[in-house]
């Protein structure tokens, strides 16, 4: 099973029975939410990160499925799909500022997320995403003109937000994007070192 497939599924071990089976009382709304918690030692651990309420799990699952089903991403290989998921999760929620919906990253960091070398990211992953119109990028430079990063705009997210449909599965709120980012950090976060 690829990492992208693992993110797009909801294994039963990610459930918190106390939250999933909690009844919604009359007049009470069932908001998507993560379930905060601490381990017995008083610190957050991996199990707590993966414990999400039913509404939040369904919302994130719908968002990832919609992203991967977008025609600009659906036919790509796993590495570009995974990069699209990472860049989507790192996107800024709209707040009426410049840079809304964008994510800032650099090739080496994206490579650590994907478990690939930076050159592979620049020569295979990003060109595939740009070529399918799934991603628009802009090189960020310092005062001397040296590149310092990459601003990325995941086009399926941009199109979802541009349409103004708040019910679009890709139009996650700031809290939902933060929860998705924390979840994928727990599953396959940066820090992998490429081997061979």
Query: What is the distance, rounded to the nearest whole angstrom, between the alpha carbons of the first and last residues?
Result: 21 Å
The beta-strand count equals 3
Following the backbone from N to C, one meets helices and strands in this order, namely HHHHHHEHHEEHH
Percent helix, as a range, is 40-55%
What are the segments in which pLDDT stays under 50 over at least 5 consecutive residues? Answer: 3-44
Largest sheet: 3 strands, antiparallel
Global outline: globular
Structural class: mainly alpha
Mean pLDDT, nearest integer? 77
Please explain how this structure is put together.
- The chain is mainly alpha-helical.
- Helices cover 47% and strands 10% of the residues.
- It contains ten helices and three strands.
- The chain has helices at 3-8, 17-20, 46-49, 54-69, 71-74, 78-89, 107-114, 118-131, 155-163, 174-188; strands at 102-105, 135-141, 147-154.
- Strands 1-3-2 form a three-stranded antiparallel β-sheet.
- Helix 6 (78-89) crosses helix 8 and helix 7 packs across helix 8 (118-131).
- The longest helix is centred in the first third of the chain and has 16 residues, at 54-69.
- It is globular, with a radius of gyration of 18 Å.
- The two termini are 21 Å apart.
- Mean pLDDT is 77; it is low at 3-44.
Concise synopsis of the structure shown:
This protein is mainly α.
């Amino acid at each position: 099973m690829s990492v992208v497939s693992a993110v797009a599924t909801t294994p039963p071990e990610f459930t918190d029975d106390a939250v999933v089976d909690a009844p919604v009382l009359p007049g009470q709304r069932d908001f998507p939410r993560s379930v905060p918690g601490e381990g017995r030692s008083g610190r957050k651990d991996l199990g707590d990160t993966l414990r999400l309420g039913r509404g939040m799990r369904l919302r994130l699952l719908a968002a990832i499925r919609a992203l991967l089903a977008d025609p600009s991403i659906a036919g790509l290989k796993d590495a570009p799909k995974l990069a699209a998921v990472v860049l989507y999760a790192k996107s800024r929620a709209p707040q009426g500022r410049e840079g809304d919906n964008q994510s800032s990253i650099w090739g080496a960091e994206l490579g650590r997320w994907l478990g690939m070398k930076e050159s592979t990211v620049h020569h295979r992953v990003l060109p595939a995403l740009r070529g399918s119109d799934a991603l628009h990028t802009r090189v960020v430079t310092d005062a001397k003109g040296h590149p310092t990063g990459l601003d990325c705009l995941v086009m399926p997210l941009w199109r979802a937000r541009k349409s103004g449909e708040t019910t679009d599965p890709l139009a996650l709120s700031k809290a939902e994007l933060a929860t998705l980012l924390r979840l994928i950090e727990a599953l396959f976060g940066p820090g992998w070192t490429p081997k061979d």
